[in-house]
Structure formats: C-alpha cells, structure tokens
Amino acid sequence: MKPLIIPWLGLLLLSCGCSGLREAPARKAFQREMIVPAELAHQHAGFLLMDPISGEVIYGHQADQAFIPASTLKLLTWWAVDRWLGEYTTGLIYARSGDSVIIRGTGAPGLFHPDLQESVADSFLRTAPSLFWVPMHDPVARYGPGWAWEDFPYGFAAERSELPIHGNLTRWYGGDSLRVVPEMFRDSLGKSQSHSSRILRAEHRNLFFPPVDSFQRDSLDVPFLGSEALTAQLLVDTAGNPAQILRNIPPDWAFFPLRGQSVDTLLSRMLQDSDNFLAEHLLLHAGWRAFDTLSFRHTIEQAKDTMFPSGDPQLRWVDGSGLSRYNLLSPRQLGEVLLQIYQTKDSSDWKRLLPAGGRSGTLESLFLAPEPYVYAKSGSMGNTYNLAGYLLTRKGRVLIFVSMNNQFLVPSTTIKRALESTLSSVRDRY
User: Fold this and answer.
1) In the prediction, which pLDDT does 282 show?
2) Residue 58 has what pLDDT?
3) Which residues, 6+ apart, have CB-to-CB distance to 27 below 8 Å?
4) What is the C-alpha separation between 405 and 47, in angstroms, rounded?
5) Distance (Å, whole) CA 151 – CA 159
6) Largest Cα–Cα distance of the chain, in whole Å?
7) One domain, residues 242 and 196
8) How crowded is residue 6: how many other Cβ atoms within 10 Å of its Cβ?
9) pTM (2 decimals)?
10) Do 35 and 109 fall into the same domain?
11) Which CA distances in Å does 283 have to 213, 260, 268, 291, 407?
C-alpha cells in the first residue's frame, strides 16, 4: 500500500459562529505532514484541536464543514441531561384512587431494565394492588427521523416510548433450552427457516424466529414492537399485578413523582457502551423534567438555543443517540460542546464517564498506553467513524480534539490506526 503524503499546513482561517472559541494567531499555527493510506485521499474528513483554557484553535481542517456525527452526538445529549436532570430520574408519576394506583410515563429509561438495579419506582409497582396506566394522547414516535428501517430487529435500535419497560427489548438466552425475558414472549416463537446465528423478528408483529441450529449465544437482545396494549401486558408480566389502560382522568387529580435511576449511572452506560436506548430516553426525560413535554423536537430546539445562543444554520440535530443520518454537526460545534463541558465539570467527571483509551468502553482496544491519555466518545456507522473528546499531553496539558470521517470505503480500522498515530504525535508534541 503506497502512502499518500497530505500536507496539513497552518491554521485554516475559519469563520466562527460559536462563543468561547477563537483562532490562534497565524504565527502559532503549526505545519505538519500526516501520512495516511492512499485510500483515504477522497474521504470527507474534518479535524479540530484546541486549547480549552485559552479557547484557541491550535489546528483546524474543514472544521466548519458538516458531517454525520453518529454517536458523537451523544455528547450533546450529555450536555442537556447534565443541565436539566438532577441526581435521579423520575421513574414515573402516580396518583391514588381508593386501592387503585394510576400512573403516567415520564420517558425515563430505567423501569424494570434488565441491566440496572431495581429502583423505587420498580418496587412501588410490584406492591401496587391494582394499576391503571394513562397513556399520552399524542404518543412518542417509536423511531427517530432518518433511522434505517432494516435495523428494527437489532438491539441497538430499540423503540422509543413514554413508558419504556425492560429497555423495550426481549433478552434471549441460549444453551440447552431457549429462554426469554420478559417471559410473556416465550409463546411468540415462529418456525425458523434461517441459518443465521441470531434470533430474528417479524417486521410488523412480535413473532420471533430462532436459528435452525440451536441458539448458542449467552444472550441476545431483540427489540419488541411496542403498543399501548403491550405496555399494559408488560406491566402485568413484570410488576405481577393487574394493569389496565385508563383514557380519561379528572383534571384536578394530583400526581406525585417516584424516584427512578441514578442519572450518573445512566450517563456512564450511555457514553461507555454507546447505548442508544438510554440516549434517546434520557433526552426525552430531560425535556419532560425541564419543559413538561415529551417532545424531542421541542427539547432539541431549547437545547440548541442554549448551547449555541448565536444560532448556527449548519447544525441539524434530530435525535438523542446519533442513529439518524439526518444529523449534521461540524468539528467546531462538537468542540464547543466539549469546551462547555470542560468549563462546567471537574476533570474527574469526564474521566469517569467517557471511555478511556486502552481501558474502558468503546476505546478499550485503542490508544494503548500505561496510563490513559484519550478520553473520548466515538461514533460509527456505515462509512463513518468519528472521535471527539479530551487528550492529555506529556507536558500535562488537556486538549480538546474532534476527528470526523465520513464517506470512506476502507475498513474503519484503517481510520482508527491513522487517528491513533495522529493523537499519539499530538500527545508527544504538546
């Protein structure tokens, strides 16, 4: 493979619509050559390196161009959650009428979640003698704009809802006998005709198809197709008490909050594991808490106005997870969000929550070193790999970096190797 030598000369004089960022003087701009494989010559790439203390951009390449951010968009969701949620989510709200308990959803993601500890809201539902659920008149759209329709049977594309239960997933366990949780789906198996190693689901119904050969995985998550009736059934199955749908309630009924999950725990899982379900519902719940609405559009517009007060026509933000290809962000915009997080959070917070190079999360096998020097959020989908976060240099500085790579046709490992080399050089130089 013949390498292509691409000169990245000096600082691009980029227009800045973001408060807090200013260009470094031309005399401080560095000149360097980056050696990358020839196959990368035609990709859409952007890069930003900045000093969060001075706000100076040390180096920028297409830093104002729009890119599909993929899961680096979760940094914006983190920003919103950090400002609008407290220490715990509100798992649900409830009222009482005699022996009956009436509940409403808040969009919070933790109810009977298989990977989370039981919350106050979970325990409360298990002891309620009779449950009534009041659904919204205008339900939450189950998928975000621009999500790929063929992702419906994959665990990373669980549906969105006002009262998510069990992560809006079925979890199948392999071995000698096939098991599923919630157990109500054990009678929803169809006859398989596939030699796939995974469990498949019908597109428009909750009918699941195991592989022809025995299912040998330890576990596999498959989203279920949600509905109001299914939510009521799941409340019966998981809470163990009768549950019905209630359409109309007196306007003067007082509803009280029940504590849900630790926000810090949810953020850690969202960022470390790049959990799309948690990202969508944390943003939805943040909007409920701050604006009394379960509207993604309204919450995102409010966040944009606060995050980028001068406005930015290049920004397009449509979901909480980054699953949508409609999302568009520039390296500079992601750098501005990282700068605001740096200015408002202790370093111990982002070191704990973000994946650490060579140690945890999606960066466990990258940036190997005796001590982590990269703390960042990655974002990947077909033909896309991005990375944005904080870099610790050998001289003790903290730098913000954003690398965005779209429209490439090489394996993403090629991009990752080039980025490892680049950030290692920056660490040594600064």
Assistant:
1) 98
2) 94
3) none
4) 9
5) 11
6) 77
7) yes
8) 15
9) 0.91
10) no
11) 40, 15, 14, 12, 28
Identify the pLDDT of residue 2. Answer: 37
Q: What was the pLDDT predicted at 359?
A: 96
Could you give the CA distance from residue 33 to residue 38 in angstroms, rounded to a whole number? 14
CB 376 within 8 A of CB 363: yes
Q: Are residues 244 and 385 in the same domain?
A: no
Neighbouring residues of 360: CB distance < 8 A, sequence distance ≥ 6: 272
Q: Please indicate, yes or no, if residue 211 is contained in any of the structural domains.
A: yes
Helix (H) or strand (E) holding 201: strand 200-201
- Nearest-angstrom CA–CA distance, 59 and 115: 41
In the chain, how many domains are there?
2
Beta bridge partners of 378: 387
Range of the domain at 164: 89-262
Kind and range of the H or E run holding 353:
helix 347-353
Same-domain status, 386 and 250: no
**Domain match, 60 and 98 both:** no
Angle formed by the axes of helices 296-307 and 276-291, nearest 10°: 80
Last-in-domain residue among 228, 262, 296: 262
Q: Give the CB-side neighbour count of residue 393, counting CA atoms within 13 A.
A: 17
Asked if residue 41 is part of any domain, the answer here is yes
- Give every residue of the chain whose pLDDT is below 70, as ranges: 1-42
Name the β-bridge partners of 6.
34
In 3D space, the residue among 62, 64, 76 whose CA is nearest the CA of residue 21 turns out to be: 64
Asked, for residue 312, whether it belongs to a domain, the answer is no
167 located within any domain: yes
The answer on 94 and 63 residing in a single domain is: no
Q: Which of 247, 262, 277 is the last residue of a domain?
A: 262
E strands along 314-406, which residues? 374-381, 384-392, 398-406
**What is the CATH number for 336?**
3.30.450
Token pair recorded at residue 330: 């520039």
- Can you give the pLDDT at residue 31? 39
**Per-residue confidence (pLDDT) for residue 16, from 0 to 100:** 34
pLDDT tens-digit series, residues 2-33? 333 333 333 333 333 333 455 444 334 443 44
Three-class SS of residue 296? helix
What are the C-alpha distances in Å from 391 to residues 21, 57, 319, 424? 18, 14, 27, 9
User: What is the per-residue DSSP string for 100-158?
Assistant: EEEEE----S-TT-TTS---HHHHHHHH-SEEEE---SSPPPSS-TT--GGGTTSGGGP
